[in-house]
Amino acid sequence: MWGNYLKMAWRNFRRDSIYALFNLGGLAIGLTVCLAILLYVQDEWSYDRFHANADRIVLFQQFEGSAAGGGAWKPLLERELSQVEQVTRLASVKVLLTVGDQSFYEPNFYYADSNIFNVFTFPLLQGDVKNALNQPYSVILSEAMAKKYFGNENPVGKTIRYDKKQDLFITGVMKNLPDNSHQDIDFLTNMNKAEELIGFNLRGFWDGTHYTYALLSEGSTAAQLNKRAQDLIKASGDPNAAIWKPRFIPLRDIYLREALSGKIKSQKAIQYVSVFSLVAMVVLLLACFNYINLATARATRRAKEVGVKKTLGANRRQLSSQFLSESFVFVTVGFILSIVLLHFALPYFNQIAGKTLQTSDLLSLNNITFGLILLLLISLLTGLYPAWVLSGFRPVETLKGVFKTGGSAAYFRKGLVVTQFVASIVMITTTIIVVNQLQYIRKKDLGYDREQVLTMNFQGDLSANQRQVFKTEIQALPFVKSASFSSHLPGTVIGGNKLVPDFLPPGTDVGIQFMLADDQYLKTLGVELAEGQPFTAGIANNATEFYINEAAKKRFQWEEGAQQKLGYYTYAYTPQGGYQEIPVNGTVVGVIKDYHTLSLRNAIEPLLIVRNNEPLGNLAIKIQSGEVKDAVDAMQQKWAAIFPGVPFEYSFLDETFNANYATDVRTGQVLGIFAAFAVLISCLGLLGLAAFAAEQRTKEIGIRKVLGATVTNIVTLLSKDFLRLVIIAAIIAVPLAWWAMSKWLQGFAYRIDIQWWMFALAGIAAFAIALLTVSVQAMRSATTNPVESLRSE
After folding, report:
1. What is the pLDDT of residues 371-428, one digit of tens each?
2. Which residues of 434-455 are buried (b: 16+ CB within 10 A; e: fewer)?
3. How far apart are CA 425 and CA 764, in angstroms?
4. What is d(CA 141, CA 149) in angstroms, rounded to the nearest whole number?
5. Cα–Cα distance between 265 and 272 in angstroms, integer?
6. What CA dihedral angle connects 408, 414, 416 and 422, to 10 degrees?
7. Which member of 427, 657, 730, 761 has the lowest number of beta carbons within 10 Å of its beta carbon?
8. What separation, in Å, do the N-terminal and C-terminal C-alpha atoms of the chain show?
9. How confident is the model over 509-554, as pLDDT tens digits?
């Protein structure tokens, strides 16, 4: 029986090969898209699951929106929380490492507590996990760094120079962390020597350099610990603890559900996971609808077959089994084709999505099980309705040749076409709005000039005197307009501080963004003054001149900001291990126009800039237009003379800006591709239906041509019914797309307004594509010789 079903399926494929190829192509493309998204979603969902204790590890958050906090939390959490088994810390630095005559800045260098391996699963390829970090100056390398510095030699027992001042002894080689880790770690060294090597106190609550993780006891949850947040604030004894927002975040939520600043991967990726999962379902349904549409539309071609079989004794169950088995064979072939297509398409998808996915990832037990279930579900979805329609034919009518599928089947097919194009138009509209929002971000006036601005971040043991000499030297270059030291640059997280309340209206929020900058900051970055005057130039360091931005002036309820008195707190550590506040009062010499210190997802916050002419950690250099290459070459020569043996590293401010939106840009590109595939699948189904409609009206077309109908008349006749369905789909799609994209745009503090033309453009695009698709088949029918069509009848 099953062999007979396969024969019948093959014969029907050969007889209607064009329509079968339309169906098979649409289904294969849809499945390819779904499998690509499946691998993408699995990769996103798998972040940090490789840790054996992943379900019990939490990150402690001290400041709202930030992953890093103070080093003092480890003993406090161990003392106050009975649900915590272990607490461990990581502290990131960018450091200059030297082996022989090789020197490199390494951005993924971490200080770690010796119990780090009790919490995280970081397998060692060489060395003893229990003792690798117990020695004071021990260091563990990743296998990639071992290869970089020592080639194929065994590095264990050798040394690596830290900032040209201390040898670290290599005690182990760690397996490279997988891509689906929220951390990028190349070096681990003993936390006990951090203060000595870095040069400042790391034992307080305010250093903001530590990532503190806790391993919870069995049965304990982050939600339970979060109820103790206020108790932790009181236990700290810190007088300024009120501005903290302590919280425990499950390890697997860091990448998926959070958007934290710091040296970790934390992108709130669940938004994209949800969107792409929905896209996969939509594209798959479009492909299934194609099959159902064409199968039911071509029901008349198999009416006599059903009639003969029923006359010979076949019952409805047997006929349904036949058509379902045909659907299963068809879907199986589609699955095989989709895997072949995926193999060739995946490298391009990886390039766009920023992934390293492989077709072999589909061979896991879970994926094979999921694939078999999906195969059965699609076979049922695509086969049940056609089987029900075809097996329900009455043999008397079909054998007489008077069979009609009926109005309900026609309406069902039209409903599927409308649904297909609703999905297509929504995806086209989504792509248009995403692209426009990204263009708005790139072109919006940010309040500062990010073009031709080279930035450098000074790391390690580079003296203040050397930094100042370097700045003086490059300012004298003809390629350089100006240069400025500052503690922070736009596009990076700016720390917070507390204002002295004496100069502010009662009840004013005293928390404020806080940074240091010299008198060239505004000129170098093109930040404009709204009132007042620039910092005084040419004098020694003076921390009593301030800028505030317009947002701060508004918060302070000042009519005039310039020449107002203001103060902030600095801190001094006491011999007992605590600290005391020291107020620093000064004058607001200027109010600067608001500029975006972070991405456009964040509203502009009040900002205080304190004048500081010391050589700070960041140097911004404004280069003359068109002189970038010459300027970089000249700067590199100056650098080599002043900092011999130290690598010359730099970036550009626009690169930092663009990095904030890399995920959104990739998402927009991927959405655009998926929208194109959705339209393609819809058009394949539409082309098949148009071909079938033209075939059914062969005699009518021949008669009309004999009576004088033109090609235009015939094309209009065959196209209007389908185009009417596209118009209905556009009407339904507009409110759906508006609702979905309004939700998405709420993630941006500064965003475009959704305009009517965006929907019009999507509708026109869908209409034009549908018209072109139908017209191709209509033109073919309209140009057929009427003698041949009438003779065939």
Report:
1. 888 888 888 877 676 666 665 556 555 555 544 554 555 676 677 778 878 888 887 8
2. bbbbbeebeeeebbbbbebbbb
3. 9
4. 10
5. 15
6. -140
7. 761
8. 35
9. 888 888 999 999 999 999 999 999 999 886 666 668 999 999 999 9
